[in-house]
Fold:
Amino acid sequence: MRKFLNIICNSNVKHYIFILFLLILYILVCAFSYVNAVSTDISNSVFRLHVIANSDSVEDQNLKYIVRDSVLEYMNEIAKNATSKDEIVSIISEHKDDFYDVAINTIREQGYDYDVNINIGNFEFPTKTYGDISLPAGFYDALRIEIGNAHGKNWWCVMFPPLCFVDVTSGVVDEDSKELMQENLTEEEYSVISDDSTEFKLKFKLIEMLQNVNIFTAKLDG
Structure:
């Protein structure tokens, strides 16, 4: 032990340890900067849908999917030609009351008297995969639809680029949606969410890990 301490106390060794510490610190700073830049750009390029059921009962979960389908059908009517997130947000904001009407009318048609709460804001999302596109956990702008007490399981999708129908059909993202995603992201960012190579899998995991830390920190602050 004394010999080990003597080695540590050696001026040359301390010099190398200090350099190693600076190198590790530099790598961490670069990693955080990379994650922040990529995750921010990804978040800023998509607009999501979040539907929360009244409860976890079979009936309420089925109702959630029926409301979802009605909302997506209406969304497709008014925004199928949108080419940017800003355009989607503008359209949804202008038609917020109409989304409420679509949801509440669907609920009434199904024989329920639940109310609906419609919000447009920035919300926490877990990591989700749509076909061959994966979005890391984090905070995203979204249209949130809360049915009744909103104590049931969630349903998430991406309204722009339009990936919502992937979950309920073939599981394949169409080329138009991919092109919109590519137009709104850098080549590096798009590769992070779509490339299956080891390099980009590791980068995605890094983003996912640090984003989960950010979510945990935000919850503590809240």
